[in-house]
Amino acid sequence: MSDLHSQLPPLILGGAGWSYQCHPAPDALPVANVIRQAFDSGVRAIDTSPYYEPSEQLLGKALQNASITKHYTRSDYILMTKVGRIKSDQFDYTPAWVRESVSRSLKRFNTDYLDVVFCHDVEFVTEDDALGAIGELLKLVDEGKVRNVGISGYRIDVLARVAQSVRKRYGRPVDVIQNWGQMNLQNGRLEVEEGLKAFEDAGVQTVLNASPLNIGLLRAGGVPVGKLGDFHPAPEGLRSVCRDVAEYMTSQGESLAAVALRYALWRAEATSHDHFRVCTITGISTIADLTENVNTSLTILNPAEKSPTSVAGATLDHSQLERDGRLFDKAREMLGDWSDYSFTSPDPGWSPELKKIINPSEKSDS
Q1: Mean pLDDT of the chain
Q2: What is the pTM of this model?
Q3: Average pLDDT over residues 319-325
């Protein structure tokens, strides 16, 4: 059984911030400096994907920087990436591509193993596609190139169903599930019985809650717009009310981003127990992002005595939680009918079998 749940820090550095989706010029960002400071702060786990172009390349180069290699060895940090999603509308879950993608990631990171490889956005492909890809990843585990196998996506029901099927077909659970945008101040659907409980029932011990700010929705200044334009799925009504909530938090001497991160970290700790752990992935692009996220984390998590500035080994600060309670309640009240609103993933016309958007005539012919 994987011991990943005992190895991960409560806060994980998300590599999507170094992508064209989230930033107009990720190549210009100080990636090595951010990683060095993250590691020094106890944030020694990174999650990325080849889909977050050019995140893998930038991270790989940064991890070979002397400022990092002089102080940290490969075994000091956890490196997670994904396979299967190539572009917004292009997927390849074939065993051959899974193996090729892992090989490419190993070269980019100049490492002989990856701590976790996820099948990326499993709701876009068939269950058989996902199971086949997982089977190939399990072979790579046997070969020592991958240590843990996971699935990621937005659709909680699909994640739960695939996890159950993995256990039936391979006689073992997936090691970790990553879900995004559904354990945060606006949307808490991951906590319903069909979410975390279903994952645990499938034998999963580690769940990663990605995007506690819901891809930048829960912050002042609006959603991030990168080189590829505005990709955020939130409708204008939800964006508008989030702007109102951000203004309210500012009037209270707070930032919505900080309040939202504290909420997500609270829920992660509240839903974890001895053999089941929820950790939070937050997108970080700059030193300022990192500093804000670590400092915010340390207001809701009591640091371990041995390292008062590290999020590693931290426990929940109940006094801060009491102070935050009214802010959480007010935000949910202001969100009103938008509370627990979920996005549609994939788009209604998407065919997991054909892996493309199809029109009504194609549906009737098939």
Answers
A1: 94
A2: 0.95
A3: 96
In angstroms, rounded to a whole number, what is the distance separating the alpha carbons of residues 302 and 308? 8
Q: Decide if 113 is catalytic.
A: no
The model's pLDDT over 32-49, given as tens digits with 9 standing for 90+, comes to: 999 999 999 999 999 999
State the pLDDT confidence band at 303, using cuts at 50, 70 and 90.
confident
Report helix angle 31-40 to 55-63, nearest 10. 60
Distance, in Å, from the CA atom of 161 to the CA atom of 139, rounded to the nearest integer, reads: 22
Which long-range contacts link 330-337 to residues 24+ away (Cβ below 8 Å)?
A: 330/248, 331/185, 331/245, 331/248, 331/249, 331/256, 331/259, 332/185, 334/241, 334/244, 334/245, 334/248, 335/185, 335/186, 335/241, 335/242, 335/245, 336/241
- pLDDT for 364 equals 46
Percentage of the chain with pLDDT > 90? 85
User: What is the pLDDT at residue 75?
Assistant: 97
**Cα–Cα distance measured from residue 50 to residue 339, given in angstroms and rounded to the nearest whole number:** 32
Catalytic residue among 51, 52, 77, 263: 52
Number of Cβ within a 10 Å radius of residue 147: 18
Determine the 3-state secondary structure of 332 from DSSP.
helix
Separation of CA 325 from chain center: 25
Q: Which CATH superfamily is domain 11-365 in?
A: NADP-dependent oxidoreductase domain (3.20.20.100)
Query: Which pLDDT does position 59 carry in this prediction?
Result: 98
What residue ranges do the domains of the chain occupy? 11-365
| CA gap 298, 290 in Å, rounded | 12
Q: How far apart are CA 15 and CA 31, in angstroms?
A: 10
- Tell me the C-alpha distance between 182 and 209, whole Å: 8
| DSSP state at residue 51 | T
Distance CA 358, CA 366 (A): 10
Please report the pLDDT score of residue 35 as a whole number: 97
**226 pLDDT above the threshold of 90:** no
Q: What is the largest CA-CA distance in the chain?
A: 65
Helix (H) or strand (E) run with residue 62 in it: helix 55-63
- Amino acid identity at 241: V
C-alpha 196/C-alpha 7 separation (Å) is 20
